[in-house]
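Suppose you are handed a protein chain with no further information: no name, no annotation, nothing but its sequence. What can you learn? This example shows the usual starting point.
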Amino acid sequence: MTESNPTPGNNRQPWKIASFGALAGFLAALLLAWGLMKPLMLVTHASPYGVEETCRRLQASIEANGWRCPAIRDMNAAIAKEGLSLDSPVRIVELCKADYAKDVLETNPEVSTLMPCAFGVYEKDGTVYVTGLNTGLMGKLMGGNIARVMGGGVGADEANILECLN
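A reasonable first move is to predict its three-dimensional structure. Written in structure tokens, the prediction is:
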């Protein structure tokens, strides 16, 4: 009886191939999730008004819906103080509702980094846009009390606030 000696090229190690395949699959899924999540995390609406009028309408709608508008930040002016400029106007319209903030911060103070809520108002290619976080999706990703508050009242209120652009 003769023994067959495996040749160096025939001794495949299935675990190496499987490991490489699993790693490649994981990286592909990660890249796909990253590519799909970014556009889902932000919600953008075109505004038929100029930047300043859009900001005024947002502020009035925020307050009419029972929220506060602590500030409208002029990013062009802020950047100009540093000797730089932006090609188009950019504003940040802040909004806060103390009831929601308290509800979330009592259980999850770490999300204070996301407060106050804000809309970005900017002009791009001659069109004015309003962009905000997708609070419903953000809440679902974080789960628990954050999902209840952000996916419930906050999301509904933001939709009502943005109706001022119609």
